């Protein structure tokens, strides 16, 4: 739930609930030569103009930007007699802002590496791990004594010296397996395995290492938080994490020690969609529903060539902030290097932050809501190395994009927290490819269906248990209404599925008797009471061209649809439709996913938005009000940043089912500022939005 921040006063600024009024963040990451060159007053002015109420500032770790007294804690050689960290802390506090100190412990200088070789990560051949980007410095071993002892001393010194609310650690989780003698001994003693040679989800040693690493990192979060609180009881240690990396920790300890979370997904990279910003918010909210979360946004492009001290187009920066804001993430922008050779980023950030400041009080007390949830498959993703998880997410990304295109509002729910209460918030859940599910997780889903819930699932969902053992049949076979008859096969080419008996799932394909199939196929037998709107067309060659024709009639269920008998519906698609849609974007697959969700819902959606264009929708509610965010993704660079300009879209019709006991409503547009008419149509309210430039929010007040 969102809360209007209280005014930051002397009494509230240092209370244990300080984070509730820290909702717009400026991050300044110093370069080593900044102390000799930067203008502190420029940054104080940026704080004012952006209405920032919190700042994250470089303090120590790899380089200290204050006069540290810790041996081997490298202090910037440009610091002289100044204290750049302390100067900004003082200026921010005078503005009533919250302050978080940033530490980065991922690397050390050569003198520290020579004095303490045990602090350095070790390659498999026994050599010290030199930094990949800057020769002459060394990567630290995140699971050893460097973090546990040295970084703890740094945190303790910063918290004792400065008036701060939190410590934020960046790049603290390590970079690959460190084969130090100490790690090898500890790992073998605790697990019985040798350290894994490579990332391999099927290797028991890799699985054991991932769990071992998860335990040590979680313990570090607790240790550092306790260190902070021992000096400043109101303050916290906050680890930097991506939306997916919540799976890296013991959730109960994160719940206890991290009152606020941040997503470090700073901009679009490569072929990425603007909704990726908001997806991060949904993912963390899918695990910690009520935890405030900030989205770190870079003012520069986020590409593999690392132009970190550059400037992104203003519209691109605003798109990232807007979509994050719509999906419940408060804005945080980061600038690397305190000297500003190009200030074109300033006004776009000011505009986006000021919009957040205007809208924030209007949605006070509202909670993001939806009737549909995509199950975030943490159990599956844990089986992949962090650097390879994006491959495992293709199915989920395809379903996500299909629902955005279909204008269907939805949330995430992590498979780590599938309680009956959590599941029952939704009329329908989507399992795009939750390959690995435990018996308990499968039971939770089956019980949800028995209580009237609906399911759309695809591909290898539930084919393996949580540790990677393949089942003889799907763990959710009774839910699917289908049994496995042969193992998945692929990749295959030139496959098709044929439209079978008329059914709502194969509507919209007029003129076609078949559509593109998958590249990984699973053979199943459908239950007698289930329907099969699509059948597999048996494989046929893709070359020579003269041989490209089907030899056999369609057979075997390619889509299974059934009524559950408990008030819900289930659709199971036994091939990788999400992955193929994400890679190919064939409209037929997007339509099939949307058809499956719409049919399985079994009724009209609570919120509908009709009109031209691609928009990302988020819905917020409280008893007497509803707010609907509409983020315009319609632009020539929708699948590739940076956005050149916004293409406004025309009239949109927003239709919302009236809550029980309500008979009328009033509405206004929070961005445009205009009031708008509410037309009562049956048991729904219709509102016309004349146009949307970058973002609009329809704010409805319900009346009895």
From TrEMBL:
The keyword Ribonucleoprotein does not apply. InterPro entries: Class_I_gatase-like (IPR029062), Divisome_Glycosyl_Hydrolase (IPR052177), GH (IPR017853), GHL6 (IPR028212). Keywords: Plasmid. Pfam families: GHL6 (PF14871). The keyword Cytoplasm does not apply. PANTHER family: GLYCOSYL HYDROLASE DIGH. This is Family 10 glycosylhydrolase. It comes from Sinorhizobium medicae (strain WSM419). The lineage of its organism: Bacteria, Pseudomonadati, Pseudomonadota, Alphaproteobacteria, Hyphomicrobiales.
């Amino acid at each position: 739930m969102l809360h209007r921040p209280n005014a930051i006063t002397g009494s509230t600024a240092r209370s244990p609930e300080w984070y509730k009024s820290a909702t717009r963040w400026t991050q300044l990451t110093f370069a080593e030569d900044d102390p000799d060159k930067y203008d502190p007053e420029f940054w104080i002015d940026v704080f004012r103009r952006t209405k920032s109420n919190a700042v994250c500032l470089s303090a120590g770790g790899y380089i200290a930007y204050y006069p540290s007294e810790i041996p081997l804690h490298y202090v910037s050689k440009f610091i002289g007699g100044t204290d750049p960290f302390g100067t900004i802390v003082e200026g921010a506090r005078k503005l009533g802002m919250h302050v978080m100190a940033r530490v980065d412990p991922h690397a050390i200088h050569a003198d520290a590496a020579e004095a303490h070789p045990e602090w350095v990560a070790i390659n498999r051949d026994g050599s010290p791990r030199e930094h990949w980007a800057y020769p002459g410095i060394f990567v630290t071993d995140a699971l050893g004594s460097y973090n546990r002892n040295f970084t703890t001393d740094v945190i303790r010194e910063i918290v004792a010296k400065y008036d701060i609310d939190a410590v934020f650690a960046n790049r603290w989780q390590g970079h690959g397996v460190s084969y130090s003698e100490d790690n090898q001994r500890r790992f073998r003693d605790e697990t019985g395995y040798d350290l894994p040679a490579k990332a391999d989800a099927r290797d028991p040693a890799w699985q054991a290492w991932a769990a071992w690493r998860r335990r040590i990192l979680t313990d570090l979060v607790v240790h550092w938080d306790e260190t902070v609180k021992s000096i400043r009881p109101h303050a916290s240690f906050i680890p930097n994490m991506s939306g997916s990396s919540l799976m890296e920790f013991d959730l109960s300890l994160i719940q206890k020690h991290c009152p606020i979370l941040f997503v470090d997904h700073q901009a679009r990279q490569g072929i990425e969609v603007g909704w990726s910003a908001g997806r991060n918010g949904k993912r963390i909210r899918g695990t910690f529903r009520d935890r405030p979360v900030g989205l770190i946004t870079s003012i520069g492009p986020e590409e593999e060539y690392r132009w970190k001290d550059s400037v992104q187009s203003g519209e691109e920066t605003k798109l990232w902030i807007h979509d994050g804001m719509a999906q419940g993430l408060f804005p945080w922008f980061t600038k690397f290097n305190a000297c500003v050779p190009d200030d074109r980023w300033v006004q776009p950030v000011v505009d986006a932050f000021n919009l957040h400041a205007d809208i924030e009080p209007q949605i006070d007390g509202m909670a993001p809501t939806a009737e549909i949830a995509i199950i975030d498959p943490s159990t599956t993703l844990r089986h992949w190395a962090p650097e390879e998880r994006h491959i495992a997410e293709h199915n989920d990304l395809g379903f996500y994009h299909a629902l955005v295109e279909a204008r269907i509002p939805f949330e995430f729910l992590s498979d780590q927290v599938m309680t009956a209460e959590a599941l029952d918030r939704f009329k329908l859940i989507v399992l795009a490819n939750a390959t690995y599910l435990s018996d308990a997780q499968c039971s939770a889903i089956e019980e949800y269906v028995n209580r009237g819930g609906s399911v759309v699932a695809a591909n290898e969902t539930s084919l393996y248990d949580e540790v990677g053992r393949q089942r003889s049949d799907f763990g959710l076979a009774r839910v699917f209404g289908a049994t496995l008859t042969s193992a998945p096969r692929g990749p295959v080419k030139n496959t098709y599925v044929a439209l079978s008996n008329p059914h709502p799932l194969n509507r919209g394909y007029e003129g076609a008797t078949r559509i593109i199939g998958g590249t990984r196929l699973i053979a199943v037998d459908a239950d007698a009471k289930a329907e099969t709107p699509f059948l597999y067309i048996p494989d046929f060659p893709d070359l020579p061209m003269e041989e490209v024709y089907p030899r056999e009639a369609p057979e075997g269920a390619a889509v299974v649809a059934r009524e559950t008998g408990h008030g819900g519906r289930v659709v199971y698609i036994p091939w990788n439709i999400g992955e193929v849609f994400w890679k190919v974007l064939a409209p037929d697959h997007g339509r099939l996913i949307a058809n499956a969700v719409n049919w399985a819902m079994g009724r009209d959606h609570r919120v509908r938005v009709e009109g031209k264009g691609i928009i990302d929708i988020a819905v917020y509610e409280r008893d007497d009000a509803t707010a609907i965010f509409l983020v315009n993704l319609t632009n020539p660079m929708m699948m590739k940043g940076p956005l050149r300009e916004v293409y406004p879209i025309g009239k949109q019709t927003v239709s919302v089912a009236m809550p029980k006991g309500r008979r009328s409503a009033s509405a206004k547009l929070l961005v445009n500022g205009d009031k708008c008419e509410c037309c009562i149509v049956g048991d729904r309210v219709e509102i016309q939005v004349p146009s949307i430039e970058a973002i609009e929010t329809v704010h409805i007040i319900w009346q009895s």
